[in-house]
Structure to design on (204 residues):
């Protein structure tokens, strides 16, 4: 019985591993500036590995440069209103999504430079659309949205910043991850509970 339950749990964990995982992830730390500014930043940067900049510019910012802090106080992040005074539309490469449940996550903060409030629209295909208005001193916050895909599709994440004063909302730690189905989690819970019962009976 004990071996059977152990096998059940192992199988469930394998199933979880197959269903859960990061589909897309970028914290910008591996970006190499075209022209070094300060210690690792670059203004009007458009050589991203996983992103493209349309109809405007964004700045790559290394933590501490220009007195700016990235999420967690380390690494690199993106100022969504580039230094040419024309806020960019920042879009990810295409992301393939099979049918299932997913979670979009990203970190944003205010412009950190005592400027006016900033506004930004964020979309992920037809699965997510929201406008964010952040005060200049708004601290880093994590935005999380869960969505369901009915059939296999390809989509991308777009951050569309309004304004053009070269001081914008800061972005970091963008990811899309698959979420295990509730039935799989329930099966794992039952397996763990059964194993606990079996162990108690063995001790008795």
């Amino acid at each position: 019985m004990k071996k059977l339950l152990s096998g059940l749990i192992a199988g469930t964990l394998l199933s979880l591993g197959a269903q859960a995982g990061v589909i897309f992830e970028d914290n910008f730390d591996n970006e190499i500036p075209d022209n070094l500014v300060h210690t690792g930043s670059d203004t009007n940067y458009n050589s991203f590995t996983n992103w493209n900049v349309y109809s405007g510019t964004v700045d790559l910012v290394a933590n501490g440069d220009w007195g700016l802090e990235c999420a967690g106080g380390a690494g690199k992040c993106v100022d969504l209103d580039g230094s040419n005074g024309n806020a960019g539309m920042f879009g990810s490469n295409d992301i393939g999504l099979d049918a299932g449940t997913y979670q979009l996550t990203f970190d944003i903060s205010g412009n950190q430079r005592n400027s006016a409030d900033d506004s930004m629209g964020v979309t992920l295909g037809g699965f997510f659309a929201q406008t964010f208005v952040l005060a200049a001193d708004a601290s880093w916050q994590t935005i999380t949205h869960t969505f369901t895909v009915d059939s296999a599709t390809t989509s991308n994440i777009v951050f569309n910043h309004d304004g053009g004063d070269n001081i914008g909302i800061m972005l970091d730690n963008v990811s899309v991850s698959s979420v295990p189905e509730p039935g799989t989690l329930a099966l794992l819970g039952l397996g763990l509970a059964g194993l606990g019962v079996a162990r108690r009976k063995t001790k008795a």
